[in-house]
Amino acid sequence: MYIYAMKKTNPYVKGSLNTIILKLLSDADRMYGYEITKKVKEITNGEFQLTEGALYPALHKLETDGLIVSSVVFTDNRPRKYYSLTKSGKKQVSLKLKELAGFIENMQQLLNLKTA
Amino acid sequence: MQLTKEQIEQLFEFTRKKYVRWYDLQIEIVDHLASRIEEEMEKNAGLSFEQALEQVYKGFGIFGFSQIVREKEAQLEKAASRLWLKTLSEYFTVPKIAFSAFIIALSIVLAYQINSVYLQVFFVAAYITGNIVLGRKLTSLNKTKKKLLMLQYHPFFGSTFVFLYQLAIFSKIDTLSPVFFCVTSVIGTMILIVSFEVYYILKRKAIDQYPEAFEIA
């Protein structure tokens, strides 16, 4: 059925979406929405796909929380909204990365129980 | 491959048809659609603009753009109330308190010391006119050439509340206790000042970010 065939963001990716966005923005100076989707797809060889319905709400929430700011730039034929990290966003990046790394480590230990 | 200006305009029209009324959200969605369409048309030279749009729009799922709009609304509402609280916390500075004290003192003097009915009527009329002018200023925010979602959560209610309250007080000035009058004046003035500050902060931010939305149609 069509509903079940709908494109969905992987729930693990969705759970770490904030960290992924902050990390990508800390590497690039500024990025726009579609660029982030493309970059994630590129780095993971198409394994991780961000849907628009997951990406934009995440961006907007980070903006409300003051971690990123947006600015509109006119390109050749259309306006484009760029996001970049704020001061507090920059501070959060390493913290969030550490958090996620710790989570992954614990997950690996949980899933490799047979050594215990 | 780059889309033409007319095709971009068609995309803006498309988002409007799909109930994205707000320019600040349209920008982002149009840019996303355009990037995807350009990519699809490069991959498949036989694809027309309309076909590509249909294909790309399907990728948004059965709910289309509505989820993005809904969640953005929730975020902006949150941001507006945070801004209100932050501005309120910054109210307690010497210049603002002094200004409020001046306004309150003035209204007390006018309300209690002036015995002339004409002067009181004049004062109430001036107060009402002032409120109408300020109210129109606030509602004019919604009449930008392109509608901005970020301006939909301005604190107009604050001014309306104060207006109604003080009107009630003025009409019964002789029977109200001075303490009640003073307390409501202090709170009312505070709400008014904070409301207008929030309004100016939001407007400055909007003009800064979307100057083209304010061009006269």
Task: Give a structural overview.
The complex is a heterodimer of chains A (116) and B (217). Chain A has 116 residues and is α+β, with helices and mostly antiparallel strands. Chain A is 59% helix and 14% strand. Chain A is built from six helices and three strands; from the N terminus they run H-H-H-E-H-H-E-E-H. Chain A has a three-stranded antiparallel β-sheet. Chain A is globular, with a radius of gyration of 16 Å. Residues 1-6 of chain A have low confidence and may be disordered. Chain B is an all-alpha fold and 217 residues long. Chain B contains eight helices and no strands. Chain B has helices at residues 5-17, 23-43, 49-58, 66-89, 94-113, 117-139, 156-171, 178-209. In chain B, helix 5 packs across helix 8. The longest helix of chain B has 32 residues, at 178-209. The radius of gyration of chain B is 25 Å and the shape is elongated. The mean pLDDT of chain B is 81.
- Biggest β-sheet description of chain A: 3 strands, antiparallel
How many whole angstroms does the radius of gyration of chain B measure?
25 Å
Rough outline of chain A: globular
How much of the sequence lies in strands of chain B comes to under 5%
Alpha-beta content class of chain A: alpha+beta
What topology does this entry show?
The complex is a heterodimer of chains A (about 120) and B (about 220).
Chain A: H1 2-5, H2 11-15, H3 17-27, E1 31-32, H4 33-43, H5 52-64, E2 68-74, E3 79-85, H6 87-111
Antiparallel strand pairs in A: 1-3, 2-3
Chain B: H1 5-17, H2 23-43, H3 49-58, H4 66-89, H5 94-113, H6 117-139, H7 156-171, H8 178-209
Helix pairs in contact in B: 1-2, 2-3, 4-8, 5-8, 6-7, 7-8
